From TrEMBL:
Species of origin: Candidatus Desulfobia pelagia
Organism lineage: Bacteria, Pseudomonadati, Thermodesulfobacteriota, Desulfobulbia, Desulfobulbales
The protein, known as: Pantothenate synthetase
Broad enzyme group: ligase
Keywords recorded for this protein, A-Z: ATP-binding, Cytoplasm, Ligase, Nucleotide-binding, Pantothenate biosynthesis
The keyword tRNA-binding is assigned to this record: no
GO cellular component: cytosol
Catalysed reaction equations from the record: (R)-pantoate + beta-alanine + ATP = (R)-pantothenate + AMP + diphosphate + H(+)
Molecular function as annotated in GO: ATP binding; pantoate-beta-alanine ligase activity
Role description: Catalyzes the condensation of pantoate with beta-alanine in an ATP-dependent reaction via a pantoyl-adenylate intermediate.
Length: 283
């Protein structure tokens, strides 16, 4: 596996592979890799001759007071894991190379970014779409894999690619969970033992909601209320949002159907966690 830092060298590598007729899949990450990230890389390996894993803690997707400075980092370990699961390149640029002095262009997807995480993290998705657009231009992938854990991000990236006529297949990968149901996340490393237990309220809420739907609940608003009430029962968990939405449009559902997803964000101590699940899926 090659480790590449400079965007120009990345593009040169890609061009040399394109000349050989090779296909490329990109897996964008912010590093501190876990099995969720590695599942994305494995999926990419099934789709393309080469997987490029990008590792970049993107400063412009963090708001003031968020965890940019404390975001966990482990470059050597990430490189070893990426190589182990079959990546051809780990692309890890410096911020100064992606955002040189005088940088003034951003990519914005309107509408889809207004609610859910976009509601509580203004400008977050502008940062995401801008960096992903740059990565797409540098790596020129045929496909890219994103996790369904970031439900809104996946919808937003699909929209950007479609709206900008980009010939890139955007592949979603199901959420990878710990044995007890907690969705894997680099930010789980912030949790102490007590908070880690409280974090199970997210998966519990999804299971609870699915059970209610199986028992006949159809009214999304009243189910949201029940879920909020259940989460509020967990001391020290602060709800950001509990929202039942259509998986693609992210519009609120009034009646629960096969495309309805429960999307959740909470804060436990200083850690913000998200999770989601289709309501008509198997528990
Ligand atoms: P991050 O490093 O958190 O920006 O995530 C990089 C990619 O990995 C994104 O597409 C995430 O949606 C995906 N991802 C993160 N955690 C998981 C998980 N538990 N299961 C599946 N995909 C994940």
């Amino acid at each position: 596996m090659e480790i590449i830092r400079k965007p120009k060298r990345m593009t040169a590598w890609v061009n040399s592979q394109a000349a050989l007729g090779k296909t490329i899949c990109l897996v964008p990450t912010m590093g501190y890799l876990h099995d969720g990230h590695l599942a994305l890389v494995r999926k990419g390996c099934e789709w393309a001759d080469h997987v490029v894993v990008s590792l970049f803690v993107n400063p412009i997707q963090f708001g003031p007071g968020e965890d940019l400075d404390s975001y966990p980092r482990s470059f050597e370990r990430d490189a070893a894991l990426s190589e182990k699961v079959g990546a051809s390149v780990l692309f890890s640029p410096e911020a100064i190379d992606l955002y040189p002095k005088g940088f003034q262009t951003t990519v914005t997807v309107k509408g889809l970014t207004s609610g859910l995480c976009g509601g509580s993290r203004p400008h977050h998705f502008d940062g995401v779409t801008t960096v992903v657009a740059k990565l797409f231009h540098i790596v020129k992938p045929h496909s890219a894999v994103f996790g369904q854990k970031d439900l809104q991000q996946l919808a937003v990236i699909k929209k950007m690619v479609s709206d900008l006529n980009w010939d890139i297949d955007i592949l979603g990968h199901p959420i990878v969970r710990e044995a007890d149901g907690l969705a894997m996340s680099s930010r789980n490393s912030y949790l102490n033992e007590e908070e880690r237990l409280k974090a199970l309220c997210l998966h519990d809420a999804i299971q609870f909601a699915r059970k209610k739907v199986r028992a006949g609940s159809q009214n999304a608003a009243s189910l949201e209320e029940d879920i909020e009430c259940r989460i509020r029962g967990c001391n020290g968990v602060v709800i950001d949002y509990v929202s039942i939405v259509n998986a693609e449009t992210l519009q609120k559902c009034s009646v629960i159907n096969n495309d309805s997803v429960l999307a959740l964000a909470v804060k436990i101590g200083r850690t913000r966690l998200i999770d989601n699940g289709f309501l008509k899926a198997e528990a």
